[in-house]
């Protein structure tokens, strides 16, 4: 039985009052690419731009969800409202993630100040979906003070998450060959904080030293943020308060020098562009209700024109 | 000292006569996103649409380059002209690949019927670049009968390569946990041929059986191509002729039922769309010489409008 969707204004009000079901409904509208999204985004826009978006990335097994959970608890201790968006860049489906959400929510089930949600990666372009920024916009406007975006660091995903976050935490752990992985995946360009988790294990000194050496080699402009290296044992809550302090230091630093505003404008720019491109792509596909693109494609395939001339024709027909 | 670029018509003629340097120069124009590309593509279009584009993908270590090299030799034995485009989706740089090209070319250095080239993946969207289809267009128009596109199967790359190829070969090898990998990465949806390489090793029966079981579960329309499973030891040239036969069977099948034409039109469609989108993106960035997108981004960041309304304004300003 399809659920009735309440009016957008009502959903937005309830989400801002901390009602998890209203937040969930709004994010589902994003996931489903609902035609109501325009109205939702218009209703949310006056409230957006206040959350600190914190990306958390790292290889499988470094302890991302344990660390995130510990950070959520620590932030709740300071009275802040916290949301977690766990993005799985390897799966086009979100179904399987829902059970995980429920398990993860158990610690915070009665706490209206916490919201946890998994999202699959969408879109045929691979990597993190263009719906992720919109889900972040929902959580931001819903009044969460801190929004963690957690994703497995594979391929391009950590670069993409860094583009969406104000602050990016790169998690590592001893004994996983992370030093080599770090250099390879280019995570040294995206981390604002480096956290070596499982710091009670052998090899923590090696990881920390490798990381320090590699960060020392990075070129950094005068006055640029210098990423701190922290150690945690997230499963025992060790070092978590220090991570919270570092996140807050970073926020203060960004606020003081305009970096936060720059990041937000840059994200808005990417979002507008993505929506405009998606809109235009849809228009190409259904141009004047005929199959103009198909006709052009057939001409190119038969060698009767080239793709550049065909693209010119397509744009001219808009 | 910058090299003089000969006139496009001359380059195209020389490339069609099998001159490797002319082919290389044309592909460099693609890689450099040269302003001459429009002219190049226009000059090439009458000759395009004849090559059989064969994708080769598989996890690291399954023997992709050995297999490709054996296939090149086998095809040369039948008198066909063969090109190899090796795409590295993990690297934004192509510099390191050039030495590899020279090593790989040694076996075929005096053979005008063979061309081998590595390309880095470009573009901020991740995955295979939009320049790959254009490089394939160059090789096609240069008169190669078969063009192999080789890429490491990681993340989305095998799905993307399948979109660019007429025929996709998925390579596997025993003892690499490929059965599980296969299901996970969705390669069962992209393979037209499955080749279990290193078939002299333990575990070849397991891989073949797992693969057969999984392929048996796939839903297939009436009359659809049924992917064969082949075994090779590429390093000793065993089973390679059978792979060539299977590739040619697939080509005959595609020619007979219109699938080949469909694929080519679909590829042309993607190419036109990608070029049109890139053109429009550039126009957004420099709209009327002002910073319209920046102004809109600031308004969205400050909550004065939402990204959908901003996208509408951007499109209206085109």
UniProtKB/TrEMBL annotation, chains A, B:
Write the record's keywords in alphabetical order, separated by commas.
Chaperone, GTP-binding, Hydrolase, Nucleotide-binding
Give the matching Gene3D superfamilies.
Answer: P-loop containing nucleotide triphosphate hydrolases
In terms of InterPro entries, this protein maps to: GTPase/Isobutyryl-CoA_mutase (IPR052040), GTPase_ArgK (IPR005129), P-loop_NTPase (IPR027417)
Which is an annotated Pfam family here? MeaB
GO MF assignments? GTP binding; GTPase activity
Has the keyword Nucleotide-binding been applied to this entry?
yes
Similarity section = Belongs to the SIMIBI class G3E GTPase family. ArgK/MeaB subfamily.
User: Any idea what this protein is called?
Assistant: Methylmalonyl Co-A mutase-associated GTPase MeaB
Q: What is the lineage of its organism?
A: Bacteria, Bacillati, Actinomycetota, Actinomycetes, Propionibacteriales
């Amino acid at each position: 039985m399809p659920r009735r969707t309440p009016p957008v204004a009502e959903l937005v009000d309830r989400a801002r009052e901390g009602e998890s079901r209203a937040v969930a409904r709004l994010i589902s509208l994003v996931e489903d690419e609902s035609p109501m999204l325009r109205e939702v985004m218009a209703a949310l826009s006056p409230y957006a731009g206040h959350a600190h978006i914190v990306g958390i990335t790292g290889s499988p097994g470094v302890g991302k969800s344990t660390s995130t959970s510990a950070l959520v608890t620590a932030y709740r201790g300071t009275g802040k409202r916290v949301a977690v968006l766990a993005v799985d860049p390897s799966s086009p489906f979100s179904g399987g993630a829902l059970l995980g959400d429920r398990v993860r929510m158990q610690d915070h089930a009665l706490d209206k100040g916490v919201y946890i949600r998994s999202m699959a990666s969408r879109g045929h372009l691979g990597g993190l979906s263009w719906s992720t920024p919109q889900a972040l916009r929902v959580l931001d406007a819903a009044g969460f003070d801190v929004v963690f975006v957690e994703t497995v660091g594979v391929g391009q995903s950590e670069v993409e998450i860094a583009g969406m976050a104000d602050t990016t935490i790169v998690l590592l752990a001893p004994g996983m060959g992370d030093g080599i992985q770090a250099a390879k995946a280019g995570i040294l360009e995206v981390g604002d904080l480096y956290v070596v988790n499982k710091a009670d294990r052998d090899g923590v000194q090696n990881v920390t030293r490798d990381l320090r050496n590699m960060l020392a080699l990075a070129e950094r402009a005068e006055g640029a943020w210098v990423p701190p290296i922290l150690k945690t044992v997230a499963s025992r809550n060790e070092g978590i308060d220090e991570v919270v302090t570092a996140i807050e230091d970073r926020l203060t630093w960004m606020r003081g020098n305009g970096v936060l505003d720059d990041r937000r404008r840059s994200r808005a720019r990417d979002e507008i562009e993505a929506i405009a491109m998606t809109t235009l792509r849809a228009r190409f596909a259904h141009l004047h209700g005929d199959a103009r693109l198909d006709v052009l494609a057939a001409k190119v395939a038969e060698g009767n024109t080239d793709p550049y001339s065909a693209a010119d024709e397509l744009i001219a027909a808009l």
